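STRUCTURE REQUEST FORM
Protein name: ABC transporter substrate-binding protein
Source organism: Luteimonas wenzhouensis
Requested output: structure tokens
Priority: standard
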Amino acid sequence: MIRLPRNAIAIALAATLLAAAPVVATAQAQQAAPAAMQGSPSELVLNNTRRVLETIEARRAEFAGDRAALQAFMIGEFENMFDRDYAARQVLGRHGRGASDEEVKAFGDALAQNLMRRYGSSLIDFNTRLQVRIKSETALPRGLGVKVSSELLRQGGEPIPVDYLLRRAGNGWRVFDVMVEGVSFVQTFRQQFDAELQRKSIAQVTRELRSGQLSPATGGN
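Status: completed
Returned output:
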């Protein structure tokens, strides 16, 4: 079984939120982004990471004392651009063949809620002096989308490599996977849930995720 690196689920969740917020690019941010990034997935990642880090810093005291406000912030950001249904089908893999859109959506909702409930509070512990550096933007094979490779730069520590996989959806881009230190959380969860889905229906696994009876393995603290 593949396990994410130590603390990587929390990092992946935070990284997903950093990428998933709507673009609110200030003139300063537009100037800071290279011309090649304007209107691109790279610009999306760059501007949104800056914006969410600033929001967490500005509302840190509020979020620390009001976890409901933190949860509302997280859900709002997560909903805006993360392609939850597509990612859920990737996690389900062969078990999702023939599953209805409603079953897939319910599974994706339950997985996201489970992760945010368990790891969402780690957002307020993030050092918001983090900075993001875009390394590259490359096309995925078979026209599946693009990969934006980035690093989260932190004081007193090694950079954290974070790759975002995005696909076209409507008129924009949506994140469907996040890779931390080279490990995909979609692939990780697909392998972790495979045994459960061999024995149980998607609906049963969904119920157990919602109740907290079943949770993704972290492989670390």
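Reviewer notes: The first helix runs from residue 8 to 20. DSSP finds nine helices and five strands in the chain.
Form closed.
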